[in-house]
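Report of the visiting student (M.T.), summer placement. My assignment was to run the structure pipeline on a short list of targets and document each run. The first record concerns Beta-galactosidase.
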Amino acid sequence: MLLKRIIALMLFAGLAFACKSWEEVVEPEARKESRSIENFGNNWEFRRLENLKEKGTGWEKVNIPHSVKIEPLVVNDQWQGTALYRKTFEVSNLNDHKWFIHFEGVMQEAQVTINGFLVKTHKGGFLPFTVDATPFLEEGENNIEVEVKNVDDPTIPPGKALGELDFNMYGGIYRNVHLIKKNKVYITDAVNAAVEGGGGIYFHTATATKKVATGKLTVHVQNGSQREQSIKLQYSLLTRDGDINRFYSSSRGPGHAVVEAGETASLSLNFKIENPLLWSVDEPNLYTLTVDILADDKLVDTQSLKVGLREIALSGEAFFLNGEELFINGTNRHQEYPYIGYALSDEAQYRDAYKIKQAGFNFVRLSHYPHATAFLKACDELGLLVMNAIPGWQFFEEGEFEENAIRDIREMAKRDRNHPSVVFWENSLNESGMTEEFMERANEVLKAELPYPDTFTAGWIDHPSYDLFIPARQHAKPPLYWNGYNTPNRPY
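After the run finished, the structure tokens were exported:
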């Protein structure tokens, strides 16, 4: 027994020593101070303004996620109009940090005002946006107001008027909001950075077998300080059982850059992991990816997320996951709940994914728009394959609508590219008559954002620019084109 204790103590000491070089650079307190993310959803005030159907309301205290109105169990005529949200909050050490407010979803047009200054106007209700609040904040108490409109707007996908749309949309700040504090040298937000094929953190697995997995991590960094910085990338992949793989950058490699004040850089490191725990529908193994950014050998930012090692392919008439053919058995999903509409908690998002998995499905198509990040995380954890989709339904217009649809493709790809569950990208406007130019451009944009051979596009029209054809047979009556349809342009 004593010998076992001595051996165990030696093994523990060896593990601590092996970690020492990493922890000497990244101490727990430094990691804690490099970034903070606070739930910004509590203690808001809310009121609806008058519309054609009812008078306005007084201010009431609410928490976010929030729907502008509790609707009947069966609803086909939900509230539309303008609503206001406001909140008082405090910040300290203002000059030492950058402050961002991240909205996961606001339906469907938002104007954000901080301390009386209009900071941002955002159109689109299904994808996130981030506000750089730093220039508008004051030390101590601050005020934020968000004006939210969910009136019909043909320039915002899906574009169709609510009374003609075949699914419901509900107003409000209906997804999570976070207040993020960062140092002046920091990892950017992928959507906000607007770097084609980059921005934020991009983790991609190139090959994955039971023997070895390979891939690449790319991280986009902003130097918001007043001087040049020598910036390095290092990261780790941790299994649920505590096994860890670490990756460091050399002083001259692609994981290191000297960045001028006010400039950005993309840092990258390849990885190779022997005997990996692969992600699959039956064994959805996840790794915790922890990314550390060092400036002059001091930790300045850190971010963690769950990732999976998996390899996907389309070949012949089949889909392959980790080299094995997989029969896809799936369903569609809308993101609404009775009474509260879109304002689901993360737990309710998980419940939906769990029930889909328990029903025997291994695949879910997101109808007909990007769903919450919490739902995708649940699919990652439970082993559900996902077809992601941009907002659209039987509507297309050139001009501003088309440009906003292209923007949705870019932002959906940036937001969701690190989820192992997402295997298909429906960059097609559901059941809509799209132009040849739009379909070709939509695919070019997606492939530019996700520049790897395992990026598979999907469209409801049998157009050669799509990798996957998804005929609209979910309705009782087949679409007219189906009657004369014989052989597809591809085997899948």
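The CA atoms of residues 230 and 296 lie 5 Å apart. The helical segments are 2-25, 28-34, 190-193, 346-358, 373-382, 400-416, 436-449, 480-483. I thank the supervising group for their guidance throughout the placement.
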